[in-house]
Amino acid sequence: MFTRRLAIPFLATLLLAGCATDQGEKQTAGAILGGIGGAVAGAQFGKGKGQLASVAAGTLLGAFIGSEVGKSLDRADRLAMDRATERAHAAPVGQAITWNNPDSGHSGTVTPVRDGRSASGEYCREYQSTVNVGGKTESAYGVACRQPDGSWKIVN
Predict the structure, then answer these.
(1) In a 3-state reduction of DSSP, which class is residue 10?
(2) Is 46 exposed, middle or buried (0-12, 13-18, 19+ CB in 10 A)?
(3) With left for phi above 0 and alpha for psi between -120 and 50, is residue 50 left, alpha or beta?
(4) Buried b vs exposed e over 99-111: b needs ≥16 C-beta within 10 Å?
(5) CB-hemisphere CA count at 13 Å for 19?
(6) Residue 2 in domain
(7) CA distance 97 to 85
(8) What is the full per-residue pLDDT of the chain (156 aa) written as tens digits?
(9) 77 is in which domain, residue-wise?
(10) Angle, to 10 degrees, between the axis of helix 23-42 and the axis of helix 49-72?
(11) d(CA 110, CA 126)
């Protein structure tokens, strides 16, 4: 389907980190998921020892970003982001779906940038997402595939 697999999107870190109910748990979940995404992204660069260094750097950076966002987004932010993500599944490629929470001032976008089929024939879409928290914007890319039951699953 795609010539190059992309990292677990930053969006996945945000959505999955939201499963935790305690602020510390959200931050920990965000750090873990961000670290995994960073490691996958880092593996795309370099060869040999250079690739190992890229994986290590990606892991650390991803863990830091995931931790910061995990502790920053509240339930209303995640709900707004979830709604935007659902709308993006059906949006035309290139159309940015925006979300915002006027209470927290946090906002972001989810934009489908490409679609295609996986090796097993699932319909998949590549997304670019942004999250604006405290005046800082973070971006990520990822791929999600539609499951037989109609739900979407984030894939590596």
Answers:
(1) helix
(2) middle
(3) alpha
(4) bbbeeeebbbbbb
(5) 9
(6) no
(7) 8
(8) 333 333 333 444 444 444 444 444 555 556 565 666 666 565 666 566 565 666 666 666 666 666 555 656 788 888 898 899 889 999 999 999 999 999 889 999 999 999 999 999 999 999 999 999 888 998 988 899 999 999 998 886
(9) 10-155
(10) 150
(11) 10
The C-alpha atoms of residue 155 and residue 142 are separated, in whole angstroms, by 8
**Of 39, 30, 25, residue with least CA distance to 11:** 30
Q: Cα–Cα–Cα angle for 146, 155, 48, nearest 5°?
A: 155
Q: Is 27 contained in some domain?
A: yes
The answer to whether residue 85 sits within a structural domain is yes
**Taken in order 10, 11, 16, 20, is the CA torsion positive or negative?**
positive
Q: How far is CA 108 from CA 9, 12, 21, 45, 59, in A?
A: 14, 14, 22, 27, 23
Q: Count structural domains, the chain.
A: 1
- Report if residue 5 sits inside a domain: no
132 and 106 Cβ atoms separated by less than 8 Å: yes
| Dihedral, 10, 16, 22, 25 alpha carbons, nearest 10 | -70
